[in-house]
Write a structure and sequence with these properties.
Mean pLDDT: 81
Shape: elongated
Number of helices: 29
Organism: Thalassospira xianhensis MCCC 1A02616
InterPro entries: Mycobact_MmpL
Distance between the termini: 30 Å
Radius of gyration: 34 Å
Keywords: Membrane, Signal, Transmembrane, Transmembrane helix
Number of strands: 12
Protein name: Membrane transport protein MMPL domain-containing protein
Length: about 775
């Protein structure tokens, strides 16, 4: 036994060293993005892209941008501060590029190099309308005015490629569509200036996002202190994610500390000895340690919610320790004591592994992480009970313990509820039928906006930036499908034509699609014809007389501008307007979704997607999957119970965890807790822990250590409700709902485990006998 204990202790030390190395060394990050919980299914790579996959792709790209808005009453002071601030942000590890109005000459040169050879193929909507309506003279006069303007930037090269100055109008219109805040904005006596940072793709996955946000906040504070009157605002997914992660980490520390102290106090009030406390800590610590080591070994990043949830392992793994520790010292040697509880522990572990194993089949990484954490933690706790606790001298429960007195009182009260096996079978049938009906009839609420805590300051900043700079805007977008890139571009142009009236009516603030950056070949051909017949044929000679260079009509056989790798390098915005073979049209301030849907009704291969709704629908589908998986786990548990205890007793034993699930569902509904995918998945934990309770009692039923087991189950209930009840105090709504549902369910699990396994009156051991023996 000592050799096994030494080997197991070495395993725990190795797991501790590995987990510390992974977390401290930055090899495993902590993720708090709610988006990372969805869209992990294995999809057909050759099939059409799902709405949720598009949402993930686009929001992931959006997550690589951070926007800062600086404002001051003096423009020169503002620009000086912004330049200083931009330099500080650019120096941060993880910043890929900085966009600052008036400081992007390289970007302008890149755009001119890309677009200038195709100037005669590119027309702004207003220029195209003028030419279509036969008002080419307006464009000719504009070219003459531009030629003699003191601020002209014309060169011999630009005059050859674009003598009618069509490209500046195209770029000006494109800048308005992009809404990227390319200039200082004056409003209400204040000047506003955006500083936009493009972040490295691996910033989040490398676990350095917290460091980058800390550096950005320090730069903001520094520039604010150095510039009196300067106001700042910021937005970006990285700020929300880091704020949520920090809040979750704080919850982890608080829940773990309070739960541990509470459980230790409880054990102290039972034994009045430090040895059982030490034994419980060994089991709890090994469970937490093994669970964490398993998660960091398998997953590149741990979700913050899984980390919070992992803290509740304290309330589960301590159950195994308690069942050994409450056995009286006169029950025999450590081996004899283990022999008494090993069947119950083993069955409890098997059932828990089945329950948590079902979580691992979840299409979300969060539940998979919780499953791995829980299974590894419970196995480690089980091993610690077998290998480590027998080395600790036994200590009896003190007869004067207040918790023992509470146990005796509860046993006396609940003993009056004993019922014949026939009544229990009827109750079991009622539980099963009601549970099935509840799964179908109780409505779900999977609104993604209810899961996160949110940050009031960041939400306020995001609103200000969207209102003043026009950045951020509506999350609604349009996906254009199709195998041919040119067909998609033509569809995008048709969408713009259909939605332009809504922009004029202020039902849509604006839109930007790939076809706005790169017109289709069909549109470019039409533009060349309009420019040739409307401008060059009519005004080419007159303009040529005013220029120092000879101009020629557009070559209709010239190459077209197409969305290739070269275009993508000059236009990084393409990444935000393309997703795995589909083109994207981003909408801004979409206030009338119904009107947009109606306008798009006759256009094929177009899908209007609202990310919050798409994500909520995905969680609704997950919730249906969860109920099916839970039903499967219950069926397996029923078969095992019948095989172990026979038909009648097996049904009653199975009905206890099923009833606990029903108790959690009805209790949560009564208290107004949203019936979401995650609260449904929490029922797996209610099932696993409730199964532990009833199996421990069923194995000791009518046996000499039955009363010890009942005390251990009560102590387990107290520790579990303490741990999961603390989850109900979390600042993260998702975690709070999960904790509340589990705490409610476990109370029902305890009562039903007692009631369904009540011993016969002839063999019932009174609590007074414990004190007399």
């Amino acid at each position: 036994m000592a050799l096994r204990a030494i080997l197991w202790a070495l395993c725990l030390i190795a797991m501790a060293a590995f987990a510390t190395w992974q977390l401290r060394g930055g090899h495993t990050g902590i993720d708090a993005d709610i988006l990372s919980l969805i869209g992990q299914e294995n999809a057909d790579p050759n099939g059409p892209q799902s709405d949720i996959a598009t949402v993930r792709h686009l929001l992931a790209n959006d997550g690589r941008q951070a926007i800062f808005m600086l404002s001051h009453s003096d423009r020169d002071t503002l620009e000086t501060a912004a330049t200083d601030f931009a330099d500080r942000i650019a120096a941060l590890d993880g910043t890929q590029a900085i966009t600052l109005p008036g400081h992007n000459n390289d970007r302008f040169a890149d755009l001119m190099a890309l677009y200038s050879p195709h100037a005669n193929s590119l027309l702004s909507p207003s220029d195209r309308e003028e030419l279509t309506d036969g008002n080419a003279e307006t464009l000719y006069r504009r070219a003459i005015q531009n030629l003699y303007s003191p601020a002209t930037t014309l060169s011999s090269q630009s005059l050859k490629q674009d003598p009618f100055a069509l490209l500046p109008a195209f770029l000006s219109d494109l800048g308005a569509k992009l809404g990227t805040g390319n200039d200082v904005i004056a409003q209400g006596g204040q000047f506003y200036l955006p500083v936009m940072a493009s972040l490295s793709p691996d910033l989040r996955s490398s676990g350095n996002d917290q460091r980058w946000v800390t550096g950005a906040n320090a730069a903001l504070q520094s520039i604010t202190d150095a510039t009196p009157g300067l106001s700042v605002a910021k937005t970006g997914q990285i700020f929300f994610a880091v704020a949520e992660a920090s809040r979750a980490q704080s919850d982890v520390q608080r829940i773990a500390i309070i739960a541990t102290i509470g459980i230790l106090v409880m054990i102290g009030l039972v034994f009045y000895s430090p040895l059982p406390l030490f034994g419980a800590l060994l089991v709890v610590g090994s469970g937490l340690l093994a669970g964490l080591a398993a998660v960091v070994a398998i997953f590149p990043a741990i979700h913050a919610i899984a980390l919070v949830f992992g803290a509740t392992m304290i309330g589960i793994s301590v159950d195994y320790a308690l069942h050994y520790l409450v056995l009286r010292s006169d029950a025999g040697s450590p081996v004899d004591r283990l022999r008494k509880i090993r069947p119950g522990l083993s069955l409890g572990l098997l059932t828990s592994v089945i329950g948590f194993g079902a979580l691992s089949l979840s299409p979300t990484q969060l539940l998979s992480q919780i499953a791995v954490y829980s299974v590894a933690g419970l196995v480690a706790a089980y091993c610690s009970v077998l290998f480590l606790l027998p080395l600790i001298p036994a200590r009896d429960v003190r007869p004067s313990s207040p918790i023992l007195k509470l146990h005796d009182g509860l046993q006396a009260i609940l003993g009056k509820t004993f019922a014949p096996i026939r009544v229990r079978l009827i109750a079991s049938a009622a539980i099963i039928i009601t549970l099935a009906l509840s799964a179908f009839l109780i409505p779900g609420n999977n609104d993604i906006r209810q899961f996160g805590h949110g940050n009031d300051a960041l939400i306020s900043d995001a609103g200000k930036i969207a209102d003043i700079l026009g950045l951020g805007g509506s999350p609604v977008f349009i996906r254009i499908d199709g195998t041919n890139p040119q067909d998609r571009l033509e569809t995008g142009e048709a969408v713009r034509d259909a939605l332009t009236p809504l922009i004029a009516d202020n039902r849509l603030g604006g839109m930007i699609g790939l076809s706005d950056l790169i017109p289709s070949i069909t549109r470019q051909t039409e533009n060349r014809d309009l420019v040739t017949t409307g401008l060059y044929d009519r005004f080419g000679t007159a303009l040529s007389d005013q220029l120092p260079v000879t101009i020629t009509a557009p070559d209709k056989a010239a190459d077209y501008l197409i969305p290739d790798d070269n275009t993508a390098r000059a236009l990084p915005e393409i990444a935000r307007l393309h997703s795995n073979g589909s083109d994207i049209i981003r909408l801004r301030n979409a206030t009338d979704i119904d009107a947009i849907s109606t306008a798009l009704g006759d256009i094929e291969n177009v899908t209007l997607i609202n990310p919050p709704i798409a994500i909520s629908n995905q969680f609704a589908a997950y919730r249906l999957w969860a109920w099916i998986a839970l039903g499967g786990a219950l069926c397996v548990a029923a078969i095992l119970a019948v095989l172990r205890y026979g038909l009648s007793t097996g049904i009653c034993v199975f009905a206890a965890p099923a009833g606990a699930i029903l108790f959690a569902v009805l209790g949560g509904y009564a208290f107004g807790i949203a019936q979401s995918f995650f609260t449904t998945m929490a029922l797996f934990l209610v099932f696993a822990i409730g199964a532990d309770y009833v199996l421990f009692l069923a194995e000791s039923r009518n046996g000499p250590h039955d009363d010890d087991t009942r005390l251990a189950v009560l102590l387990s209930l107290i520790s579990s409700v303490l741990a999961f009840g603390l989850l109900a105090t979390s600042s993260v709504p998702l975690v709070r709902d999960i904790g509340s549902v589990i705490a409610i369910g476990l109370i029902g699990a305890w009562f039903l485990a007692f009631w369904m396994t009540a011993p016969t009156k002839n063999n019932t051991q009174t609590q007074n006998q414990r004190g007399q023996e």
